Amino acid sequence: MSRSVLVTGGNRGIGLAVARELAAAGDAVAVTYRSGEPPEGLFGVRCDVTSTEDVNAAFEKVEAEQGPARVVVANAGITKDTLLAIMNEESFTSVIDTNLTGAFRVAKRAVKPMMRARGGRIILVSSVVAMLGSAGQTNYAASKAGLIGFARSLAREIGSRNITVNVVAPGFVDTDMTAVLGEDQQAAIRSIIPLGRIAQPEEVARTVRFLASDDAAYITGAVIPVDGGLGMGH
Ligand code: NDP
Fold it and tell me: Which part of the chain is the Ketoreductase domain (predicted)?
């Protein structure tokens, strides 16, 4: 059965791969984008997740186009890497505002229609560094670790309404976010990943598809690593 799905940051990278994967599985998929054109074949809504008005308006457009979102993937995220000693406060708060408070705005708007429908799936895109830590990423790791406590608390709040809340924690994935790393840095990263390679966005997307599927109906509050073994032992 086709469900209404919304993926934030679905115009490129992991979000786009997730959107394409769910659309291929038969869902009606909407994506948010901030500028330019939405990807072909997907319903695009302009939305900056740092704006509550934008988020609420995006959900309304999705509801009008394809019905209330039954699957919501909070994927939009940014990095502003630097060592804490030289990190300014804006670099900290803007990463938290996008990655963590952005997911709060999206999940908050998503839950009421899901509660009324007595069903839904919320999937948050965190990162291996949430639990592993990463020098130069105190802001980013804090935002991604925050998503885990957020998801687990929300999972407890709305589990009785048949809504699951899960976290996907990717390792290094081949997107614009990691393209900024030099070849030396990429080689160093590959050397510490047990599977010896960086992931393709589709490999994360397939895990999201599983969490959104009937087969994952009894999974909630989980953190699923898709990291080639990098975070093993979490
Ligand atoms: P990209 O940089 O390729 O894409 C980021 C996406 O987020 C874009 O669609 C971007 O939209 C959107 N976005 C950023 N800020 C906002 C905002 N304020 N409002 C709305 N949308 C926004 O990143 P990835 O695809 O690599 O990352 C996707 C998610 O996966 C992120 O949460 C990231 O932290 C996480 N992740 C990525 C890993 C990696 O190695 N790549 C590893 C672990 C986690 P726009 O095009 O408008 O900028």
Answer: 3-176
Name the active-site residue from 33, 59, 92, 140.
140
Q: What's the CATH number where 61 sits?
A: 3.40.50.720
Q: Render the chain in DSSP notation, one character per residue.
A: ---EEEETTTTSHHHHHHHHHHHHTT-EEEEEESSS-PPTTSEEEE--TT-HHHHHHHHHHHHHHH-S-SEEEE---------GGG--HHHHHHHHIIIIIHHHHHHHHHHHHHHHHT-EEEEEE--THHHH--TT-HHHHHHHHHHHHHHHHHHHHHGGGTEEEEEEEE-SBSSHHHHTS-HHHHHHHHHHSTT-SPBPHHHHHHHHHHHTSGGGTT--S-EEEESTTTTTT-
Q: Is 180 in the pocket of ligand 1 (CB under 6 A)?
A: no
Ligand 1 binding pocket mutation candidate from 12, 148, 227 (most atoms within 8 A of CB): 12
Looking at the structure of the chain, the number of domains it has is: 1
What average pLDDT does range 178-195 have in this prediction?
93
What's residue 144's pLDDT? Answer: 98
Complex-level ipTM: 0.99
| CB distance 140 to ligand 1 below 6 Å | no
- The reply to whether 8 falls in a domain is yes
Atom of ligand 1 nearest to the CA of 33: 47
Structural domain includes residue 234: no
The domain of 80 spans: 4-172+202-225
Assess if residue 186 is contained within a domain: no
Q: What is the pTM of this model?
A: 0.98
- Ligand 1 near 52 CB (within 6 A): no
